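Hi V.,

Quick status before I head out on leave. The structure for the redesign project is tokenized and pasted below; the design run finished overnight.
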């Protein structure tokens, strides 16, 4: 019995360390302490965070929020809580159509098909600021990647500094580097030389630097929620965006895989370094 004690102890300690590291990663990704505290405050103060105060000036401004949704998802929160934003909400699987229904040519590439379709259809008449987000408003499970205490996209867009977007051109709405941008994540399994060439091979030499060949590392905070300026979008010609959408349409990669590729390339598409 004694001779098995030390190996068993080592095994238990090793498993505990692995579990601790994994738990710490999830704790950080989900920003669990801030979420727990904000949820408690929300409960104690009568869910005030669920119903933020109305915007004093609810005039629709020169900015738009773009998202893709499946038909069953409720996106009424956009008009209710972001009345000063224009909105373009694409239903990727409509069972019925009205004159107000926005759809994509194909239900593929996750949110990327809607994002690119908006840019292509409005390229010559874009608002000054474009915010690309997911259709879920908030929630620990569904919207953990939204960088506000309650993972709330209403909070995220109400606190977005538009002058900073105009200055930077492209802004990832997630500041937390985990996952996607930490050193261990930069050897990105979704982006290799072949994929890089497929996506960017026919693209123009835009007015910002873009590596001709796939870089050794690609790093971007997940999860395809970002804001860009009109000027930054238009540094690429319309044909580039048509080409990116054509790649999503033609690639043999699945809906999820093709969407994941663009998730880690949006910052490059809009003129930022690979890392």
């Amino acid at each position: 019995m004694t001779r098995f004690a030390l190996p068993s102890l080592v095994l238990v300690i090793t498993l505990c360390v692995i579990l601790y590291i994994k738990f710490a990663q999830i704790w950080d990704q989900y920003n669990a302490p801030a979420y727990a505290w904000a949820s408690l405050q929300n409960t104690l103060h009568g869910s005030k965070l669920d119903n933020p105060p109305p915007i004093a000036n609810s005039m629709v401004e020169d900015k738009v929020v773009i998202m893709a949704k499946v038909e069953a998802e409720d996106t009424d929160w956009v008009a209710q809580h972001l009345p000063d934003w224009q909105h373009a909400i694409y239903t990727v699987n409509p069972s019925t159509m009205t004159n107000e229904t926005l759809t994509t040519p194909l239900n593929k590439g996750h949110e990327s098909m809607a994002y690119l379709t908006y840019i292509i259809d409005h390229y010559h008449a874009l608002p000054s600021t474009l915010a690309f987000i997911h259709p879920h408003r908030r929630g620990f499970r569904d919207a953990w990647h939204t960088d506000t205490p309650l993972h709330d996209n209403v909070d995220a867009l109400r606190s977005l500094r538009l002058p900073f977007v105009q200055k930077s051109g492209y802004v990832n709405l997630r500041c937390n580097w985990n996952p996607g941008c930490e050193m261990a994540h930069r050897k990105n399994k979704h982006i290799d030389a072949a994929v890089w060439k497929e996506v960017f091979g026919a693209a123009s030499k835009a007015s910002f630097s873009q590596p001709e060949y796939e870089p050794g590392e690609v790093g971007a905070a997940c999860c395809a929620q970002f804001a860009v300026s009109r000027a930054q979008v238009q540094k690429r010609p319309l044909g580039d965006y048509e080409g990116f959408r054509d790649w999503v349409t033609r690639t043999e990669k699945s809906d999820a895989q093709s969407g994941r590729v663009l998730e880690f390339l949006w910052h490059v598409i809009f003129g930022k370094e690979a890392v």
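Above is the designed sequence. Residues 5-29 form the longest helix (25 residues).

G. will cover questions while I'm gone.

Best,
W.
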